[in-house]
């Protein structure tokens, strides 16, 4: 181990782009289903839509805008993509763009509470 290579792995960047394109197509299909094909979900579909949009934004951030590149054997990473390249933002500045885990947890908690209350109401 004479030297450590910190070059950008082309296979990982291509993998991010493939996964990002696939997830964008699937997330768009999920939004379509939530908007046009939900039947009697009433208010629950808004929680589903919020979760779907948060997942879509997270996927776009980590696969197109900011792609994390691990710097093995160090416990650190660097970023490549549109935001670090064109806007000269480092990965420390990009932490503000991610959706809050608290908001995602809150939306999922409310959705499960709605399902639980709805199922108990129907069983009565």
Automatic annotation (TrEMBL):
TM helices/strands, residue ranges: 15-35, 47-65
InterPro entries documented for this protein: 7TM_GPCR_serpentine_rcpt_Sri (IPR019429)
Record's keyword terms, sorted: Membrane, Transmembrane, Transmembrane helix
Superkingdom of origin organism: Eukaryota
Stated name of the protein: Uncharacterized protein
